[in-house]
Design brief:
heterodimer; A: alpha+beta; Aldehyde Oxidoreductase, domain 4; Aldehyde Oxidoreductase, domain 3; 7-stranded mixed sheet; 5-stranded mixed sheet; B: 337 residues; alpha+beta; Enolase-like, domain 1; 5-stranded antiparallel sheet; 4-stranded antiparallel sheet; 12 helices; globular; oxidoreductase activity (chain B); Xanthine dehydrogenase YagS FAD-binding subunit (chain B)
Amino acid sequence: MTTTERAVGSDVRRIDGPDKVRGRVPYAYEHELGAQSVFVAIVQSPVARGRVTSIDASAAEAVPGVLAVLTHENAPRLGDVAEEILVLQSPVVQYAGEPVAVVVAETSEVARDAVGRVRVDYESADPDVVLSVDRDDLYPPEQLMAGFETDSVIGDVDAALAEAPVTVDVVYETPNQHNNPIEMHATVARWDGDVLRMWDANQGPHNLVPVITEAFGITEDQLHITSPYVGGAFGSKAYTHVHQLLAGMAAKVTGRTVKLELTRQQMFSLVGHRTPTIQRLRLGARPDGTLTAISHEVVEHTSQNAEFAEQTATATRLMYSAPARRTTHRLAKLDVPAPTIMRAPGEAPGMYALESAMDELAAELGMDPVELRLRNEPDRDPERDVPWSTRNLVACLTQGAERFGWAGRDHRPGVREDGRWLVGTGVAAATYPTRRRPSQARIEAVAGKPYVVSIDASDIGTGAWTTLTQIAADALGVPMDQVRLRIGDSRLPQASGAGGSTGITSWGPAIMAAAQELHDRFGGQVPADGVTVTGSSGPGDEAEQLSSHAFGAHFAEVRVDRDTGEVRVPRMTGVFAVGRVINTVTARSQLLGGMTMGLSMALHEESVLDERRGHYANHDLAEYHIAANADVGEVDIAWVDEVDDAHNPLGAKGIGEIGIVGSAAAIGNAYWHATGRRVRDLPITPDKWFR
Amino acid sequence: MREFRYEKATDPAGAVALLADAPEGAYLGGGTNLVDLMRLGVATPDVLVDVRRLTSDQVEELPDGGLRIGAAVPNADLAADLRVRQRYPLLAQALLAGASGQLRNRATTGGNLLQRTRCTYFTDTTQPCNKRAPGSGCGAVTGLHRNHAVLGATDEGPDSPHTCVATHPSDLAVALRALDAEVRVLGRDGERTVAMADLHRLPGEDPARDTTLAHGELITAIDVPGLPWAVRSRYRKVRDRASYAFALISVAAAMDLDGSTVRDVRIALGGVAHAPWRATVAEDALRGGPATEEAFTAAAEAELAAAHPLPDNAFKVPMATSTLVRTLLQISAEARA
């Protein structure tokens, strides 16, 4: 008899790491398929609003090596897919950068050269790209993303605010931001008869299947998408974008295997972005810090061709107690590309505003901002009026304060100097929903051989290759090397995409269910001729009966150079309540990445729309700044002991997004504590010191 | 991207001869900027003449205590050269403030001076830009210009063929401008010397031209004259993140103090103009005067009085002022220590 150590909860290193470092595993663009591939390059509209009046592709077609030029006049017709991805189907242009033609050529150099030779004439109008609260066309969307209600109102908020002895009434702005995973979006496509074969960088092949089959009028059996290794995504690879359809069209027209990789610049117009927000926060409180009213009103943008309504204020619905409470969301339809999800869509900008306002309220009250949060801790979900499955925000705040050395903090702003540096500290809370989505898994067992565990899960850099192998090993009662995991393929059992921090909570239980099936039917004895079992998992009624969320607390130290306005963050502490941690190494990496992205949101990231011409002007990594290594100081990460069995037998919560939630607020609050000045529009760049 | 030929010569004169016959050709040094621009379709040479190994990659002594820097010396090597670090701290600091370790290994000294602006309208062939496409106008004056010029720019509105508010991106050039370096240039008619003061130009009515070099002229070396008091010098770069970003403002300064009096001073500013900006107004105001915060402030404000900021880069005026004042205070404190 052998005993097996549990893999879940250990610090096992990434099993895919060595092969990735050695370049032995192919990312989408690297798939070599035997037949000589051809290349697709995209002609984009510089006009943000208008129509194509004529296209002359003759000069491009005359370039040796050019196989085809597709335009709205000759491209294959697509089926009934969302308007934002109906590419090359009409002469109408709805955003700067919209594809108006593609060139297919024998080499990528020839394709890119020919792009410049396609002559396109436009009829154009001035674009409308500026979001403001004064617009007269703001409207309430039907509902928010993830099915949230557009507005929520409890009690008489205006009366409660009018009566409150202490109030805060402030407006925060967050900018357009872009997902910038290291791996650019890429698709390799080929038609094998009437079967479309794709190697693609995405967050879940099954996410793409309904759209791509509809677009090309094929059945699920006629589509096979493979995506085993993905170099980051953050939400930008969750949905079908135009490039996948362009690749399919180009492959169809030429009969060749085509490769299409977006340039970094194209990622700023073709794969979505985080909407800018303007958020008015009003808080009312008693002198002891007890909140009496919370109002959070959000204005954001969407595109002419899509309604993407980000759930910015939904975290405010559950964070703190208050008898009177209101959240609203209003949209403006602008001449911009369709927004999409970007790490913690909604929670990241929304909690920046709420947690900054809480800090401003603490200052008004002359109160420790940690204490203010503890004072308003709700014992049930304050809007849904259901119990928490687990809520350990208090533990995160108190343990974080301890680790960071918060005790004894002088709460006065602008009074600490170190040479020319002004020094301050800040705190903010974090939350992210816990949920699971329907998923299925299959286990093939043959006596004497490793188990083959198959599920169309995705590893977008999160560590899922490793964590799912750990979960499978424990469920099967074998060491990890007795498990062969297969993920990232539309022909594998259907699973939810990697998004909403639901990977582990959705995929892990499906694998466990399959292992349980194997155990129930065969005990410890695998039949000699082998057996295949399946398992599935999905949300139950716990989602209605309980309020389930991960929580966290961020602490940050900020230094501001009073001569130059430069901001540095020498240290951050994050403590999280995220249920059972499956892998301490990859979990820490997820939280570290989230906190770093929050730092980047606080200090650097902003996509600048040219208001006259309508394009994202700083569309490369030289000008769209993301925190560099030198910007990230000491990052201290911990989690509290927590197991939440309400949603899944692992006791886990999602961990991919909570790290970014609240971290920007902690830095903004520390900036105020250092300088005495509030910057209420991110990012806090050096120029803002001189306003 | 246009197809191009790749050529190598055996010596600098051979390279000059090759390019003289190729009006659309270009020299290839480290390629850290040119190759990017070719990929973007901004630069479209039909032939590249590789000069990376043709000119000297050595730093040599000059009789006046100065240094001759071969055009092919990598930025990383130059920053690490002990003589550079000891004699011209501002030069070593400027180099290390630029780009990243990998880029500094690859980039050459000559190429560094000839890099193009990072204005996003220049690097996007779908946008108007008088520098890239003369006569097409300027997208930046009405668009993204937060990091554009406040001194010496030409702003006649977005549709004028003269308008250009781009900045020169090099840190090294700012330090060399403060040091009155001279650039040795080889052309078809032989060698000539160009003062750093005359190398980069303001846009005037011809923003397409960054420098006064003629097509086919090749930088072979940079002479940095001896300046004993440059041992007390600094390069201070202010940028949007802690590393790997172009300057919002940079200050290259050296100061010679006689007790509490400024005997002599050199100041150049980066991130403010189409060329490294020598702060002669501030220098004149300081020379012979007291080394005090008040005097430094008055001199900096006098220099920046000529600024014409755009709506989104007005911060550069106070930022340049305070950064210059602090840099001079640090040098004078160092001198007194």
